[in-house]
Amino acid sequence: MLRLLNLELQKLLLNRTSKVLIFISFVLPFTVLILSSIKINFFGFFTLELGELGIFNFPIIWHITTFFASQFKFFFAIVVVSMIGNEYSNKTLKQNLIDGLSKKEFILSKFYTIVFFSLIATLLIALASFFIGLYYSSYTEAAIIVRETSFLLAYFVKLIGFFSLCLFFGMLVKRSAFALAFLFILYILEWIVFGIISWQANMDLAGKIQNFFPLKSMYNLIDQPFQRVMMTKFPEKGDLMYDYAVHWYEIFIVLGWTAIFIFLSYRLLKKRDL
Questions:
Q1: Cellular component GO terms, alphabetically (predicted)?
Q2: Cβ contacts of residue 203 below 8 Å, gap of 6+?
Q3: Domain assignment of residue 267, given as a range
Q4: Number of domains in the chain
Q5: Diameter of the chain measured on Cα atoms
Q6: From the first residue on, what is the mean pLDDT of each consecutive set of 10 residues in the chain (274 residues)?
Q7: Which residue from 271, 261, 273 is spatially nearest to 110, judged by alpha carbons?
Protein backbone atom coordinates (compact mmCIF):
# COMPACT_ATOMS: atom_id res chain seq x y z
CA MET A 1 0.00 0.00 0.00
CA LEU A 2 2.73 2.46 0.96
CA ARG A 3 4.59 1.74 -2.27
CA LEU A 4 1.52 2.50 -4.38
CA LEU A 5 0.70 5.60 -2.36
CA ASN A 6 4.26 6.89 -2.62
CA LEU A 7 4.22 6.33 -6.38
CA GLU A 8 1.05 8.40 -6.78
CA LEU A 9 2.21 11.17 -4.45
CA GLN A 10 5.39 11.56 -6.49
CA LYS A 11 3.33 12.09 -9.64
CA LEU A 12 1.12 14.69 -7.98
CA LEU A 13 3.86 16.63 -6.24
CA LEU A 14 5.93 16.86 -9.42
CA ASN A 15 2.99 18.54 -11.15
CA ARG A 16 2.78 22.26 -10.38
CA THR A 17 -0.95 22.52 -11.12
CA SER A 18 -1.73 19.56 -8.87
CA LYS A 19 0.32 21.07 -6.04
CA VAL A 20 -1.56 24.37 -6.29
CA LEU A 21 -4.97 22.67 -6.32
CA ILE A 22 -4.06 20.42 -3.38
CA PHE A 23 -2.88 23.48 -1.45
CA ILE A 24 -6.12 25.34 -2.21
CA SER A 25 -8.28 22.34 -1.31
CA PHE A 26 -6.60 22.17 2.11
CA VAL A 27 -6.48 25.92 2.78
CA LEU A 28 -10.00 26.98 1.74
CA PRO A 29 -11.81 24.90 4.39
CA PHE A 30 -9.98 27.00 6.96
CA THR A 31 -12.17 29.94 6.04
CA VAL A 32 -14.10 28.82 9.12
CA LEU A 33 -11.22 30.38 11.07
CA ILE A 34 -11.86 33.67 9.27
CA LEU A 35 -15.60 33.38 9.84
CA SER A 36 -15.05 32.86 13.56
CA SER A 37 -13.19 36.16 13.82
CA ILE A 38 -15.43 38.31 11.59
CA LYS A 39 -16.86 41.39 13.26
CA ILE A 40 -19.59 43.32 11.46
CA ASN A 41 -20.10 46.94 12.54
CA PHE A 42 -23.67 48.15 11.97
CA PHE A 43 -23.15 51.89 11.45
CA GLY A 44 -21.61 52.28 14.88
CA PHE A 45 -24.76 51.16 16.72
CA PHE A 46 -23.48 47.70 17.59
CA THR A 47 -20.91 45.14 16.46
CA LEU A 48 -21.88 41.61 15.50
CA GLU A 49 -19.21 38.95 16.04
CA LEU A 50 -20.09 35.55 14.57
CA GLY A 51 -18.03 33.72 17.14
CA GLU A 52 -20.14 35.22 19.92
CA LEU A 53 -23.43 33.92 18.47
CA GLY A 54 -22.86 30.43 19.84
CA ILE A 55 -22.42 28.76 16.45
CA PHE A 56 -18.92 27.67 17.45
CA ASN A 57 -20.01 26.06 20.70
CA PHE A 58 -19.47 22.36 21.30
CA PRO A 59 -20.97 20.13 20.01
CA ILE A 60 -22.65 22.08 17.17
CA ILE A 61 -19.29 23.24 15.83
CA TRP A 62 -18.55 19.75 14.46
CA HIS A 63 -21.70 20.00 12.35
CA ILE A 64 -21.05 23.54 11.09
CA THR A 65 -17.38 23.19 10.19
CA THR A 66 -17.71 19.84 8.41
CA PHE A 67 -20.70 21.10 6.42
CA PHE A 68 -18.90 24.21 5.19
CA ALA A 69 -15.60 22.41 4.61
CA SER A 70 -17.34 19.82 2.42
CA GLN A 71 -18.41 22.59 0.02
CA PHE A 72 -14.77 22.99 -1.06
CA LYS A 73 -14.31 19.36 -2.13
CA PHE A 74 -14.52 20.32 -5.83
CA PHE A 75 -10.94 21.62 -5.82
CA PHE A 76 -9.50 18.22 -4.96
CA ALA A 77 -12.05 16.67 -7.33
CA ILE A 78 -10.17 18.49 -10.09
CA VAL A 79 -6.97 16.85 -8.85
CA VAL A 80 -8.61 13.41 -8.92
CA VAL A 81 -9.89 13.67 -12.49
CA SER A 82 -6.57 15.25 -13.54
CA MET A 83 -4.76 12.22 -12.15
CA ILE A 84 -6.53 10.09 -14.74
CA GLY A 85 -6.45 12.61 -17.57
CA ASN A 86 -2.70 13.09 -17.18
CA GLU A 87 -2.13 9.33 -17.15
CA TYR A 88 -3.68 9.06 -20.61
CA SER A 89 -2.32 12.28 -22.11
CA ASN A 90 1.22 11.73 -20.82
CA LYS A 91 1.17 7.97 -21.60
CA THR A 92 2.29 7.23 -18.04
CA LEU A 93 -0.49 4.67 -17.58
CA LYS A 94 0.84 2.50 -20.37
CA GLN A 95 4.40 2.96 -19.14
CA ASN A 96 3.45 1.96 -15.58
CA LEU A 97 1.84 -1.22 -16.85
CA ILE A 98 4.90 -1.99 -18.98
CA ASP A 99 7.10 -1.48 -15.91
CA GLY A 100 5.18 -4.18 -14.05
CA LEU A 101 2.35 -2.33 -12.31
CA SER A 102 -0.86 -4.35 -12.59
CA LYS A 103 -4.17 -2.71 -13.50
CA LYS A 104 -5.49 -3.57 -10.06
CA GLU A 105 -2.51 -1.87 -8.42
CA PHE A 106 -3.01 1.17 -10.66
CA ILE A 107 -6.60 1.65 -9.44
CA LEU A 108 -5.59 0.92 -5.85
CA SER A 109 -2.87 3.59 -6.04
CA LYS A 110 -5.54 6.14 -6.97
CA PHE A 111 -7.87 4.92 -4.23
CA TYR A 112 -5.14 4.99 -1.57
CA THR A 113 -4.37 8.58 -2.59
CA ILE A 114 -8.04 9.50 -2.23
CA VAL A 115 -8.18 7.94 1.24
CA PHE A 116 -4.90 9.62 2.24
CA PHE A 117 -5.96 13.13 1.27
CA SER A 118 -9.45 12.61 2.72
CA LEU A 119 -7.87 11.57 6.02
CA ILE A 120 -5.53 14.59 6.05
CA ALA A 121 -8.44 16.94 5.27
CA THR A 122 -10.51 15.39 8.08
CA LEU A 123 -7.70 15.69 10.62
CA LEU A 124 -7.11 19.34 9.72
CA ILE A 125 -10.80 20.18 10.09
CA ALA A 126 -10.92 18.27 13.37
CA LEU A 127 -8.00 20.27 14.78
CA ALA A 128 -9.38 23.60 13.53
CA SER A 129 -12.83 22.86 14.98
CA PHE A 130 -11.36 21.72 18.29
CA PHE A 131 -9.30 24.88 18.84
CA ILE A 132 -12.06 27.24 17.65
CA GLY A 133 -14.45 25.44 19.97
CA LEU A 134 -12.08 25.72 22.93
CA TYR A 135 -11.80 29.45 22.31
CA TYR A 136 -15.48 30.25 21.83
CA SER A 137 -17.47 27.46 23.46
CA SER A 138 -19.24 27.89 26.76
CA TYR A 139 -19.06 24.12 27.25
CA THR A 140 -15.65 22.55 27.77
CA GLU A 141 -16.61 19.26 29.43
CA ALA A 142 -15.00 16.29 27.71
CA ALA A 143 -18.33 14.51 27.21
CA ILE A 144 -19.77 17.53 25.41
CA ILE A 145 -16.65 18.14 23.35
CA VAL A 146 -16.58 14.62 21.87
CA ARG A 147 -20.35 14.51 21.35
CA GLU A 148 -21.28 14.57 17.65
CA THR A 149 -17.72 13.96 16.43
CA SER A 150 -19.53 11.46 14.21
CA PHE A 151 -19.75 14.39 11.78
CA LEU A 152 -15.99 13.98 11.24
CA LEU A 153 -16.54 10.35 10.21
CA ALA A 154 -19.36 11.47 7.92
CA TYR A 155 -17.07 14.12 6.40
CA PHE A 156 -14.34 11.54 5.81
CA VAL A 157 -16.74 9.06 4.17
CA LYS A 158 -18.30 11.85 2.11
CA LEU A 159 -14.93 12.87 0.69
CA ILE A 160 -13.96 9.30 -0.16
CA GLY A 161 -17.31 8.65 -1.84
CA PHE A 162 -17.27 11.85 -3.88
CA PHE A 163 -13.66 11.47 -5.01
CA SER A 164 -14.29 7.82 -5.93
CA LEU A 165 -17.13 9.01 -8.14
CA CYS A 166 -14.75 11.52 -9.75
CA LEU A 167 -12.23 8.72 -10.28
CA PHE A 168 -14.86 6.64 -12.07
CA PHE A 169 -15.87 9.52 -14.34
CA GLY A 170 -12.19 10.22 -15.03
CA MET A 171 -11.69 6.61 -16.09
CA LEU A 172 -14.89 6.71 -18.14
CA VAL A 173 -14.15 9.76 -20.29
CA LYS A 174 -10.35 10.14 -19.88
CA ARG A 175 -10.64 13.95 -19.87
CA SER A 176 -10.77 16.18 -16.80
CA ALA A 177 -13.26 18.75 -18.14
CA PHE A 178 -15.69 16.10 -19.41
CA ALA A 179 -15.43 14.16 -16.15
CA LEU A 180 -16.41 17.24 -14.13
CA ALA A 181 -19.25 17.91 -16.57
CA PHE A 182 -20.55 14.39 -15.87
CA LEU A 183 -20.94 15.37 -12.20
CA PHE A 184 -23.34 18.12 -13.22
CA ILE A 185 -25.16 15.77 -15.60
CA LEU A 186 -25.54 13.18 -12.83
CA TYR A 187 -26.94 15.87 -10.53
CA ILE A 188 -29.54 16.85 -13.15
CA LEU A 189 -30.42 13.19 -13.83
CA GLU A 190 -31.02 12.50 -10.15
CA TRP A 191 -33.53 15.34 -9.97
CA ILE A 192 -35.19 14.31 -13.23
CA VAL A 193 -35.71 10.78 -11.89
CA PHE A 194 -36.97 12.26 -8.62
CA GLY A 195 -39.47 14.39 -10.55
CA ILE A 196 -40.69 11.44 -12.63
CA ILE A 197 -41.22 9.25 -9.56
CA SER A 198 -42.98 12.11 -7.76
CA TRP A 199 -45.30 12.54 -10.73
CA GLN A 200 -45.99 8.83 -11.23
CA ALA A 201 -46.19 7.84 -7.56
CA ASN A 202 -45.91 10.29 -4.66
CA MET A 203 -43.43 12.70 -3.09
CA ASP A 204 -42.66 10.53 -0.05
CA LEU A 205 -41.71 7.50 -2.14
CA ALA A 206 -39.65 9.68 -4.49
CA GLY A 207 -37.78 11.15 -1.53
CA LYS A 208 -36.98 7.72 -0.09
CA ILE A 209 -35.68 6.47 -3.44
CA GLN A 210 -33.69 9.67 -4.03
CA ASN A 211 -31.83 9.09 -0.77
CA PHE A 212 -30.14 6.09 -2.43
CA PHE A 213 -28.83 8.12 -5.39
CA PRO A 214 -25.05 8.75 -5.33
CA LEU A 215 -24.89 12.54 -4.96
CA LYS A 216 -27.97 12.79 -2.77
CA SER A 217 -26.75 10.05 -0.42
CA MET A 218 -23.43 11.89 -0.05
CA TYR A 219 -25.22 15.14 0.73
CA ASN A 220 -27.40 13.39 3.32
CA LEU A 221 -24.36 12.49 5.40
CA ILE A 222 -24.10 16.09 6.66
CA ASP A 223 -27.39 17.96 6.56
CA GLN A 224 -27.47 21.76 6.41
CA PRO A 225 -26.92 23.29 9.90
CA PHE A 226 -28.81 26.58 9.38
CA GLN A 227 -32.11 25.23 10.63
CA ARG A 228 -30.35 23.77 13.65
CA VAL A 229 -28.82 27.16 14.49
CA MET A 230 -32.29 28.68 14.30
CA MET A 231 -33.55 25.97 16.66
CA THR A 232 -31.01 27.05 19.29
CA LYS A 233 -32.16 30.67 19.01
CA PHE A 234 -35.88 29.94 18.90
CA PRO A 235 -36.40 26.68 20.88
CA GLU A 236 -40.12 27.36 21.18
CA LYS A 237 -40.67 26.97 17.43
CA GLY A 238 -41.44 23.28 17.00
CA ASP A 239 -41.73 23.59 13.23
CA LEU A 240 -37.96 24.06 13.04
CA MET A 241 -37.29 20.55 14.33
CA TYR A 242 -35.59 18.19 11.88
CA ASP A 243 -33.30 15.15 11.91
CA TYR A 244 -29.72 16.37 11.44
CA ALA A 245 -27.93 13.39 13.03
CA VAL A 246 -25.44 11.15 11.23
CA HIS A 247 -27.03 7.72 10.67
CA TRP A 248 -25.16 4.47 10.17
CA TYR A 249 -27.28 3.47 7.18
CA GLU A 250 -26.39 6.73 5.38
CA ILE A 251 -22.70 5.93 5.85
CA PHE A 252 -23.20 2.39 4.52
CA ILE A 253 -25.04 3.67 1.43
CA VAL A 254 -22.11 5.96 0.55
CA LEU A 255 -19.57 3.21 1.28
CA GLY A 256 -21.57 0.94 -1.01
CA TRP A 257 -21.40 3.50 -3.82
CA THR A 258 -17.67 3.93 -3.16
CA ALA A 259 -17.08 0.20 -3.63
CA ILE A 260 -19.16 0.26 -6.82
CA PHE A 261 -17.23 3.21 -8.29
CA ILE A 262 -13.85 1.66 -7.54
CA PHE A 263 -14.94 -1.70 -8.97
CA LEU A 264 -16.34 -0.08 -12.14
CA SER A 265 -13.13 1.93 -12.55
CA TYR A 266 -11.14 -1.29 -12.39
CA ARG A 267 -13.47 -3.04 -14.85
CA LEU A 268 -13.16 -0.14 -17.30
CA LEU A 269 -9.39 -0.25 -17.12
CA LYS A 270 -9.30 -4.04 -17.37
CA LYS A 271 -11.42 -4.16 -20.53
CA ARG A 272 -10.03 -1.07 -22.20
CA ASP A 273 -7.47 -1.36 -24.99
CA LEU A 274 -4.53 0.83 -23.97
A1: plasma membrane
A2: none
A3: 2-271
A4: 1
A5: 71
A6: 79 77 75 60 52 76 90 83 76 73 88 93 91 82 90 96 93 80 92 90 86 95 86 72 90 97 93 70
A7: 261
